[in-house]
From TrEMBL:
<dbReference type="GO" id="GO:0030170">
    <property type="term" value="F:pyridoxal phosphate binding"/>
</dbReference>
<protein>
    <submittedName>
        <fullName>MOSC domain-containing protein YiiM</fullName>
    </submittedName>
</protein>
<dbReference type="Pfam" id="PF03473">
    <property type="entry name" value="MOSC"/>
</dbReference>
<dbReference type="GO" id="GO:0030151">
    <property type="term" value="F:molybdenum ion binding"/>
</dbReference>
<dbReference type="InterPro" id="IPR005302">
    <property type="entry name" value="MoCF_Sase_C"/>
</dbReference>
<feature type="domain" description="MOSC">
    <location>
        <begin position="28"/>
        <end position="163"/>
    </location>
</feature>
<dbReference type="InterPro" id="IPR052353">
    <property type="entry name" value="Benzoxazolinone_Detox_Enz"/>
</dbReference>
<dbReference type="InterPro" id="IPR011037">
    <property type="entry name" value="Pyrv_Knase-like_insert_dom_sf"/>
</dbReference>
<dbReference type="GO" id="GO:0003824">
    <property type="term" value="F:catalytic activity"/>
</dbReference>
Length: 208
């Protein structure tokens, strides 16, 4: 597993549906090494901090295999890494294999996988497609949000190494599917709600 691109961007003002919207979803590849702060990469910010960013959404990773899927689904000229708003475009880091709570060394930073992504309407803006959020959710390719455990520096080519496996078999993909369908095998919901590293906000959403 490795980093293919490190992507950052600052909020910008866009027009959508006749309204001015500030969004931080536009992220582009950065050259050289990028330092990580407690809540962001240097040079990267979110716009609406009520739903984006924070400790449980500090870093968003999206794998290059998903780009291959979307190329077959969408008419899109620009496939520059960062298109989905991810900070890290990765190779070999899949939601179906990464468990809730897995701890990774990425560059010199320590990051813990804690939840899948469920994008807001601003993904529609990025793709100029009012149905993109719905399409994204149904694709089963949510990407992975990480929490910082130890800050550091990352750059293209850095290895992504599993340092500590979580004491569970529940993957990022399992939680994403449960959130989407609200259906689970007997006992799965209870197991998910008991996960120590799953954010309280996600647990609250699953409980209702």
């Amino acid at each position: 597993m490795r980093i293919l691109s490190v992507n950052v961007g600052l909020p910008r003002l866009m027009e959508w549906g006749g309204h001015a919207v500030t969004t931080g979803i536009y992220k582009y590849p950065s050259t050289g090494s990028v330092s990580i702060e407690q809540l962001n990469f240097v040079g990267d910010r979110q716009a609406d901090l009520t739903v984006h960013g924070g400790p449980d959404k500090a870093v968003y990773a999206y794998d290059t295999t998903h780009y291959a899927y979307w190329r077959s689904q969408l008419v899109q000229e620009d496939w520059t890494p960062g298109l989905f708003g991810e900070n890290l475009t990765t190779e070999g880091l899949l939601e179906s294999e990464v468990r809730i709570g897995d701890l990774f060394r990425i560059g010199s930073a320590l990051l813990r996988a804690v939840q899948p992504r469920f994008p807001c309407y601003k993904l529609n803006i990025r793709f100029n497609d009012p149905g993109m959020v719905r399409h994204f959710a149904r694709s089963g390719r949510p990407g992975i949000y990480f929490r910082f455990v130890e800050v550091g520096v990352v750059q293209v080519g850095d290895k992504i190494t599993l340092i500590e496996a979580a004491d569970t078999t529940i993957t990022i993909q399992d939680v994403a599917q449960l959130m989407l369908t609200r259906k689970s095998e007997k006992g799965l919901l209870a197991q998910v709600l008991a996960l120590p590293h799953l954010p309280a906000l996600v647990k609250g959403q699953l409980s209702h």
